[in-house]
Amino acid sequence: MELRRSIGFFRATTMVVGIIIGASIFVQPSAVTAQVPSVAGVLVVWAAAGLLTLIGALVVAELASVWPRTGGVYVFLRELYSPAVAFLWGWAMFWTMHSGIVAVIAMVFARYVGTFVPLGDSGTRLVAVAAVLLLSAVNYRGVREGSAVQAFFTSIKVLAIILIIAIAFTFAAHGNGALTADPAAAVALPSGRAFVLALIAGLFAFGGWHMVSYAAEETIDPTRTIPRALVAGTLTVTALYVALNAAYLRVLPLATVAQSSRVAADFADAAVGGHGAQIMSALVILSTLGAMNGVILAGPRVYLAMANDGLLFKWAGAVHPVYRTPHRAIGLQAVWSSVLVATGSYRVLFTRVVYTEWIFFGMLAAGLFLLRRRAGYAPPYRAWGYPVLPALFVASTAAIVINQVVAQPLESASGLILVLLGLPVYYIWASKAARA
After folding, report:
1. What is the pLDDT confidence band of residue 181, given thresholds at 50, 70 and 90?
2. If DSSP codes are grouped into helix, strand and coil, which group holds residue 219?
3. First-residue to last-residue Cα distance in the chain
4. Are 75 and 69 within 8 A, CB to CB?
């Protein structure tokens, strides 16, 4: 049974935009601003983070045009290096990275629901699990339905962000905002180390850009659609992030942005008064639902590819005879993500392992150099700026990984060990597949 092609350019682009824009942009600006001394520094960091994300997207765009298959990054790693490397990606995705992202976003969603309806700890977890199961059911029903929900939530939150930006630049800040309060400080640039630390913080708000490649066999004309969606999506998010941070700084002082744990709510309180927190809570709820739906849609396609390669239970590779979705893989992901929410274990697993995805991203960019040397290589789409931009991306991923290891050596080592534990499992599955 084949998957159904129903994702066009618009819906593919909303996947890119909707998955990237989760809750991070409403809290992460404080981590960036704390490292840089000025408005110029903040905006340059966000623009640079968007540029690096775009470079990574260009790399994935070329790879997706060469191998427009279900599984995306898993397929690229398998073809560039080996099935073992690809298995480690899928292994880390299921147990920690991807299922952990679903759990984290679900908990953020539930906590913001709690600003309207008192929930308590148990109630928060129940709401989070309910959100995971509901969105999984939508995607179980069909990729057309899942991508339609994605397009709806993405459109709403993009319009809401544009409205926030418009409010900021028509709001009388009375000289309190960093953009107008101190012109001298506004143009100061950060030190090199501060810039790198701020850049790393900013990059984590761009996560998930690669996931549109997972559903290539459900995408219409994927060799053209996926590259165009990756470029359009990352450029859109970069523009929104830079403008949104300018909006924060139009209304709030630098010190407030740097120290706030709820910068978007503080912005709304200052801009529209006492109902600001509720307005931002509603926006975060919409934003997290859209991001969670996109992640839930994308992940099971990797597990489907693994099952088809004999590296996961064969039944996980089934495609629903009516809905034409990887329904069992969707169910598997929903159950494990719900377990992570219910037990609270997602926090430790996710935070220790999430940095390791940058190792794989660096390998993808490095693999592009190997691919370009193959005889007869003629991809439908070629990444711009080769070889300079891919080399810059490899160096950036190395800096992110090294920074994480230096800053948290024990946690980083334990996270890497969790990923590498997949190797013996791979050899068990591979030998089983060879005997079949």
Report:
1. low
2. strand
3. 21
4. yes
